[in-house]
Amino acid sequence: KVGDPTFIQPPQREWKRQLINKDFANNNLLSSIIMPHSGSLVRANIPIFGLAYGENFKEYRVEYGEGKDPASWIPVATSNTPQTKEVTTADLDDSADVTIHGNLATWDTGLKNYVYLPSYPKDNPVDLKGVYTVRLVVIGKDGSMAEDRVTVEVGDVIPNAWGGVAKSRDGSVSLTVPEQAIMDSFRLISIKPVDNTPISLPPGRRLIGQIHEFREGGEKFTKDAI
Which carries the bigger pLDDT value, residue 51 or residue 3? Predict the structure, then answer.
């Protein structure tokens, strides 16, 4: 079986995970998302790896919501099996072209840039884009809880073999990348509107459109991207 696609592009900035959160000392429950890293660009099926256990463990649930501080949460997975194993490189080995499933959950963000059968037909309804927060909630038998969160960005994946188009969620900005123009087999690109961004304009100029942020900054192309 050909594996389902997974695209995770870690942030350029240095990242360091803090394993033990404050809830562990309070109620002996551990909630820790190990992967994806906070700030990553992601697309398609995203394995959620982490730790969820404790002396008082009852169950855990994985959820996601829109933005950095979601007003509501959508369930991804719930389990009453504790997860105590650290993620290793062997868990992420995709050399055999098999699907990578997270030990906590696997989150489907959709894949609209191209058709990938059987998982992603042309009419697949899932199409997330923008900033999302994933949280892991560990619940104890007495009702106590421990929580961990990561915030990621769902972008567009560009295959080097045939290129592609990255678009902002509001549809006002697009970046067309020709085939054989990127520096890897695949790259994730995100374009999103930015609010309240201070900008210094030359005298006599005024801003008439929305400011957008491209990620990652400094992306290199071997051909002109439009």
Answer: 51
3-state helix, strand, coil in the chain (%, to 5): 5, 40, 55
Q: Which is it for strands 130-140 and 145-154: parallel, antiparallel or unpaired? A: antiparallel
Residue 68 dihedral angles phi and psi, to the nearest 5° = -80, -25
Region of 112 on the Ramachandran plot (φ > 0 left; ψ -120 to 50 alpha; else beta)? alpha
In three-state secondary structure terms, 96 is coil
Per-residue pLDDT at 94: 59
Rounded to whole angstroms, the Cα distance separating 86 from 29 reads 16
| Location of structure tokens 């609209």 | 112
pTM score, whole prediction: 0.86
